[in-house]
Amino acid sequence: MLALFTRNKTAFWQAALLLAAALSLLCLCPKEAQAATIRVCLQTAATDSEFTVQDGFYEVRGGNLAVETLCEAEAGDVIRVIKETSGFTVYLNGNKLGRSANNVSLLAENDSDCSLEFDGKEYRGSFSVLTNGYVLNVLDLEYYLYGVVGEEIGYNAPEEALKTQAIVARSYAAYYMGGTYYDVMATNSSQVYGGMTVEKAHDSTAVRRAVDDTANQVMYYDGDLVEAVFSSSAGGYTENNENVWGGNPIPYLRGVESQYDKDYSNYTWQVTYTPAQLKSLAETYMQRIKQTGSFGNFVRLDVSYQAADGGKTVSGRVTSATLIGTNGSVTAKNDAVRTMLGLKSTLFQVTSGASAEIADPIKDVYVLAANGDLEKRRVEDIYAIGAGDVIEQLSDLTEAYMRSASGLISFDSGTSSIVSGEGVTITGGGWGHGVGLSQFGAIGMAADGYSAEEILKHYYGGENPRKLEIDDLD
């Protein structure tokens, strides 16, 4: 029912008025003005939004300037916002309240005691429904982290790993504050946010303690706020940012060893594709990138390990893959390679034919020793005898080929070509883009006694770990 307040809430509603005006103009606010409040986008094309008050008191505002009070609501009340040709129509418990030509805001008395249910989940704080269809959960950054840290690294992670994730998630969110309509998404396109629902579904005591113990702490590198990207597992080694997403090298996003990843079940993985499946992957990706033409039947898969600086990627990740057919070809670069090939990461090698025994995913090949045994070697450790009996390191040669049961492999500029009518087997490691923090690496380090600060300096220390500082968010 409509809440009839008998206690004095003048101060609250005055503050709410200011917040409502701010919500309608957030896209114009400077980054610094939003340090303690984050806008999380939950939907992008909403036409009929329903909110049920779970706890606390809310004021619903709209009107021509998005600051007119439409109603006040308390626990049990249902607020419905329906998008129309111009603006919204707002209902309370099925009764039409009126129209709003601009954004509709549901303003919480406070973030700690007020929550709404939306789209099957409970969320703390305020909401804003924008005329462009975005539905935003607007709340204190620290309460937001209550619904992020456990979802990202697990609720049973060691204490120092939880603290690590709290600082990383806060740094990531702070870095993206100041977007046009919202700051972050609630999915893994930003970082996973489950709202108050996940707080209640799990024993989140350790998560809340980790957030509270690191309150307001973020990372700075050489004075600049760190874009704290992270992935599930690096497969043994993280990668330089420019080799995964392009762009300029970022000094704190350098590839480093991540040895504790080996304790993760996806440290190594393997998939085998038939020619028909490779044809389907190619055609699907062509549609995705809107590339016209016919692919035909699968002929060859080319992959390159060439880094942005002309050498090879530090972790052994693929930077380019081309599926070649009888009628055409399609190429994916950097992190898009795993999208095209449907893989967990770009840290992989390719052989042809049936599935083979999984080997170390970081650039290993097998050579026939003098005693007739097969021995595993890294490409960097193999030498070839060229013209004039000149001995050269295989990885340094501009043109070298090896033929085996796996097909024809070229080491030209770090490129491998697999020609096979039997399809290909892809052997790789890790899960995710592999830049920045490895979450399973952090869990392993924490379990081995490393502190959150030591973990962060390992993964984000980059060219000079002394330049990485953990300090309060400005």
TrEMBL record:
Pfam families: SpoIID
Signal sequence segment: 1-35
Record's keyword terms, sorted: Signal
InterPro entries linked to this entry: SpoIID/LytB, SpoIID/LytB_N
A single GO BP: sporulation resulting in formation of a cellular spore
Positions of the Sporulation stage II protein D amidase enhancer LytB N-terminal domain: 135-221
Name the record gives this protein: SpoIID/LytB domain-containing protein
